[in-house]
Specification:
Length: about 240
């Protein structure tokens, strides 16, 4: 069974007179696959991610999204996260005063509770965090800083990938920033995604980018080209 099946998805900006952005998206993702969506700025890539994550800025007007056999559109954003969907923010919010560690422990335990798994205590959580920091070759001072506070673009991106590794979602949506992502930050994203995938080959990832060069570092199973709210072409990595 597909992990994600999007059929004829139409979405518009919520509210009266909101313009239609997604104009009939079809996409099927099987467990364990890496898919990349490419397309120029303004083609609707981020909107697709936001709609999948349940952002209320957008309203679905037609079509359906089946996630793990469930009607995703029936679930609110929080339920989607508990069901294992993770969206890395394109412009990560800064949360002054909330340490990364506190934020992550709450997120991990909310998901574990939902899965009827035992919540992690402080020691178990620290062990998990240390193993993921090692995986991503991160400095330990990171955990003591407030979430995204005073982070550079590259650091925010690295933090986001780190969050993904710790939270361990079933389906990770990785949306790249439009601007300011230099070659180092690009490598951070690529190395992080590759490390997470290597540690867990079952990981399913939807990667959104308008940088073709990102695909020099991450090799997706499928590439889709989005133009004006539709996927107009799909193929293997050669695309
Ligand atoms: P991409 O991520 O491919 O660059 P986006 O999904 O961000 O594209 O945007 C697609 C189009 O929809 C753009 O023209 C953008 O200006 C418009 N758009 C996105 N979100 C909103 C919004 N909340 N309100 C108005 N227009 C929006
Ligand atoms: Mg975008």
């Amino acid at each position: 069974m597909a992990l994600l099946e999007i059929r004829n998805l139409h979405a518009k900006v919520a509210g009266p007179g909101g313009r239609e952005i997604l104009k009939g998206v079809d996409l099927t993702i099987e467990p364990g696959q890496i898919h990349a969506i490419m397309g120029k700025n303004g083609s609707g890539k981020s909107t697709l991610c936001q709609v999948l994550a349940g952002r209320e800025t957008y309203e679905v007007t037609e079509g359906e999204i089946i996630y793990d056999g469930k009607d995703l559109l029936e679930l609110d954003a929080e339920e989607r996260a508990r069901e294992g969907l993770f969206l890395g923010f394109q412009y990560p919010v800064e949360i002054p005063g909330v340490s990364t560690s506190y934020f992550l422990k709450a997120a991990v335990n909310a998901i574990r509770k939902h899965r009827n798994e035992k919540e992690l205590d402080a020691v178990e959580f620290l062990t998990l965090v240390k193993s993921k920091m090692k995986l991503l070759e991160m400095d330990s001072s990171f955990m003591n800083r407030a979430v995204n506070e005073g982070f550079s673009g590259g650091e925010k991106k690295r933090n986001e990938i780190f969050q993904m590794a710790v939270i361990n979602p079933r389906l990770a949506l990785v949306d790249e920033t439009d601007s300011g992502l230099d070659i180092d930050a690009l490598r951070v994203v690529a190395n992080g995604v590759n490390a997470v995938k290597k540690a867990d080959p079952d990981k399913t990832i939807l990667l959104v980018t308008h940088y073709q060069r990102l695909l020099n570092y991450i090799v997706p199973d499928f590439v889709h080209v989005m133009i004006d709210g539709r996927i107009v072409k799909s193929g293997g990595k050669e695309l």
